[in-house]
UniProtKB/TrEMBL annotation:
Every Disease resistance R13L4/SHOC-2-like LRR domain range: 4-128
PANTHER family documented for this protein: C-JID DOMAIN-CONTAINING PROTEIN (PTHR47186:SF63), LEUCINE-RICH REPEAT-CONTAINING PROTEIN 57 (PTHR47186)
Alphabetic keyword roster: Repeat
Pfam name, any one: LRR_14
Species annotation: Nymphaea colorata
Taxonomic path: Eukaryota, Viridiplantae, Streptophyta, Embryophyta, Tracheophyta
Source superkingdom: Eukaryota
Entry annotated with the keyword Oxidoreductase: no
UniProt keyword Repeat, yes or no: yes
Protein name: Disease resistance R13L4/SHOC-2-like LRR domain-containing protein
SUPFAM superfamilies the record matches: L domain-like
Length: 259
């Protein structure tokens, strides 16, 4: 039976403390361990799942690490690690996941960094690292993610966003909402259509926003220390501008410039 299995769904199996052996499940395409809250480890035999495209480990709250063998999942496209609160690091071997296009690290509250190896995932289109409250640094080579379309870094502890982000020429949506240590934002790529930087209470400067010439939505409400918004008049496609509570920015002279 196992050698023909394509989907294995074990979500909400609260008594599962470790994963099964996978050696005979060679045709498996989707594996779901969602909310297996007591599962502390993945068997290294997971590397035998050469046909696996989807791996869901969300809310596996006892999972502390991923096996190095995860790099052998040559067909993997989606990896969901949402809510893996005890996960402190990602294996460097993940750089071999060449087909990966969707990665969620949301609410991995013990994760302190995104390793450089992630920037070798050239097919990655969506990266969600929101609510990673201990995440303080990003890889310098972030701009190498040439296929990235959506990046969510909301509710993290990052203090700066790498200037290499301007090289992400497929990036359409960027969120850094509630990053209360973030003091500045660098130049944006021309492809960007939506920017959400709400409640960044230490944000003081933003580079010339006209670099994001396709920008349609700009949400900056609650950025109380923001003092200027250079290039705003050059955004000919802008449809939504949210500046609620930007008390250091909004005055009569700023409004006159918008006329």
């Amino acid at each position: 039976v196992l050698d023909t299995l394509e989907v294995l769904d074990l979500r909400n199996c609260d008594n599962l403390t470790k994963s099964p052996h996978f050696r005979s499940m060679t045709q498996l395409q989707r594996l779901d361990f969602r909310s297996c809250t007591e599962m502390a480890e993945l068997d290294p035999s997971i590397g035998h799942l050469k046909s696996l495209t989807d791996l869901v480990l969300s809310n596996c709250k006892s999972l502390k690490e991923l096996p190095q063998e995860i790099s052998q999942l040559i067909s993997l496209e989606k990896l969901d690690l949402t809510g893996c609160h005890q996960l402190t690091a990602l294996p460097k071997s993940m750089r071999r996941l060449k087909q990966l296009n969707w990665l969620s690290l949301r609410q991995c509250s013990s994760l302190t960094e995104i390793p450089e190896c992630i920037c070798l995932l050239l097919n990655l289109q969506e990266l969600d690292a929101s609510h990673c409250e201990s995440l303080a640094s990003l890889p310098d080579s972030l701009g190498n993610l040439e296929s990235l379309r959506k990046l969510d870094l909301s509710w993290t502890a990052i203090e700066e966003l790498q200037s290499s982000i301007a090289s992400l020429d497929q990036l359409e949506a960027l969120s850094v909402a509630c990053c209360d240590r973030l003091k500045s934002l660098p130049q944006f790529p021309p492809s960007l259509t939506g920017l959400k930087a709400t409640s960044c209470t230490e944000l003081r400067t933003i580079s010339d926003v006209s670099s994001a010439k396709r920008l349609k939505k700009l949400h900056l409400c609650g950025c109380t220390k923001l003092v200027d918004l250079p290039g705003i008049m050059q955004l000919e496609f802008l449809r939504t501008l949210d500046l609620r509570g930007c008390t250091s920015l909004i005055d009569d002279s700023f409004l006159d410039r918008l006329q």
